[in-house]
Specification:
α3 (about 30-55) packs across α7. The protein is of the alpha+beta class. Helix content is about 45%, strand content about 15%.
Length: about 220
């Protein structure tokens, strides 16, 4: 049963951020297992159960990231991640171009939301084509989002792809889309109530997840 994170989890993340080496990690590995890995897996399991009960047709599965970075993609960074996450998503062989519901914990923030880790060009093109073809659905979702605690984020194109109006331009002209809420690593993060807050957020975000997920069945405008 998820009981919340603790200051020990935040302290570990600061520690690995400034001591990103094998010696430090091995000396503090049990802290990672006790204060981060275990509660993340407990939180993921509870969220998955509740979401699949409410949205059985979504057929979500959970994934908790490993702390080890891909040795092929270190790019001068240390071998360990200093922020960790869980995702709920539909099973797929492809990571790019598919959305997920997520929770992330870092030394200086925690966040949760819905979006793409890396939206590929075909998916972005499908989104723009759908906005042009049938803007009303996303207009309704955008207005709903603007009244919530969540915010649309993601890198924008240096040269906008087009002008579809003030409301939908932020969706149309982004290379990647993330809808998220971010807070300081304190307060509710250290209580079981974090689960209820994230679950409420995931339920609110499910129409956005379904909208993003359905893009895969749209015709490819680039072909």
């Amino acid at each position: 049963m998820f009981q919340g994170f603790s200051q020990n989890a935040v302290d570990f993340l600061w520690g690995i951020k400034f001591n990103n080496n094998r010696e430090w990690f091995l000396a503090h590995k049990q802290d990672y297992l006790d204060f981060l890995d275990r509660p993340l897996r407990e939180l993921a399991a509870q969220l998955l159960s509740a979401m699949n009960e409410t949205f059985p047709d979504a057929q979500l599965q959970s994934h908790v990231c490993r702390i080890y970075r891909d040795a092929r993609r270190l790019h001068g960074r240390g071998p360990y991640k200093d922020h960790l996450w869980l995702v709920l998503e539909r099973p797929s062989d492809e990571r790019r171009g598919r959305p997920a519901l997520y929770f992330e914990i870092a030394p200086n923030y925690f966040s949760y939301g819905c979006g793409f880790w890396d939206m590929d060009a075909p998916t972005a093109a499908k989104l723009r084509a759908r906005i042009e073809r049938e803007p009303k659905v996303l207009e309704s979702l955008a207005r709903r989002l603007n009244k919530s605690r969540f915010r649309l984020d993601g890198p924008e194109y240096k040269r906008p792809k087009g002008d579809v109006g003030k409301l939908l331009n932020p969706w149309y002209n982004r290379k990647n889309l993330v809808i998220g809420y971010e807070d300081n690593p304190e307060g509710i993060l250290f209580t079981p109530d974090l689960y209820d807050e994230i679950l409420k957020g995931f339920r609110f975000l499910m129409p956005y997840y379904e909208y993003f997920s359905s893009l895969s069945s749209d015709p490819d405008p680039l072909s």
